[in-house]
Design brief:
Elements (H helix, E strand, L loop, with lengths): L9 H10 L14 H4 L1 H11 L13 E4 L3 H10 L4 E4 L18 E3 L4 E3 L19 E2 L1 H4 L4 E8 L3 E4 L4 E4 L21 H13 L3 E9 L2 H9 L2
Parallel strand pairs: 1-9, 2-5, 2-6, 6-9
Antiparallel strand pairs: 3-4, 7-8
Length: about 230
């Protein structure tokens, strides 16, 4: 689930299958070709995003790095490896052209970094050279795979030093069409799973590697400590 409009839960699938009298075999996917076939990387990523306390070392051939500058991230991924930059939905998306150009919506002021979201009118965004300076959002890249991706992790995902856990900041999430309503008192906030799933999806689009830049400095250090 990466939107309030998605159903995607095992419970709902089982409910519908039972309604139609269908058998429900359960299969555990122990390995896959995604991310250089590195089940270790995917398990490691889930371990971090879900705040599990299981000790796990990142191993295997998948190329993962934490980069301290969005400019360096672009240089490493786009300029040197022909990949694409992706980002979480911390920035509004203005789809109207300004003087014939896409507006620079993804802005990181402290680094004087600004690039537009991907052109919504181009279905070849992931492969066309003219789109290399555009940033893909979750709704564009879900289901796509590239050799290398660079993921900008916005402030919607951060790190809380006191609890030593990854946290989700509702106020920093700007996808109005996907954002669920605030929960009632005492209920879990569904946006937490939604944001975590978004970043898991973004960070598993690379077949050979994924480099990340974190807007939250604490999160950068937290991920580095788990490498």
């Amino acid at each position: 689930m990466i939107s309030k409009k998605d159903i995607g839960s095992v419970k709902e699938i089982e409910k519908e299958a039972t309604r139609f009298g269908a058998d429900i075999p359960t299969i555990e996917l122990e390995s896959q070709y995604r991310c250089s076939g590195s089940g270790n990387y995917i398990s490691w990523l889930e371990n971090i995003l879900s705040n599990r306390k299981e000790p796990m070392k990142l191993e295997g051939d998948f190329d993962f790095k934490v980069i301290s500058s969005p400019h360096q991230l672009k240089e490493e991924i786009v300029d040197h490896r022909g990949g694409r930059l992706l980002a979480g939905y911390e920035w509004d998306w203005n789809k109207t052209m300004v003087n014939g150009k896409l507006p620079d919506d993804v802005v990181i002021e402290e680094h004087k970094f600004a690039l537009p979201w991907n052109d919504p009118n181009r279905i070849d965004w992931a492969i066309h050279p003219v789109c290399s300076n555009q940033i893909g959002c979750i709704h564009t890249v879900q289901g796509l795979e590239m050799d290398y991706v660079g993921v900008i992790i916005g402030n919607d995902l951060g790190y809380d030093e006191e609890s030593n856990q990854i946290i989700v900041r509702r106020g920093a999430f700007k996808d109005k069409g996907a954002k669920p309503a605030k929960p009632k008192k005492g209920q879990a906030d569904p946006i937490v799973e939604l944001v975590r799933n978004t970043y898991k999806t973004l960070m598993t689009r690379g077949m050979k590697g994924c480099y990340v830049y974190c807007c939250d400095n604490g999160l950068e250090g937290y991920i580095q400590s788990h490498l």
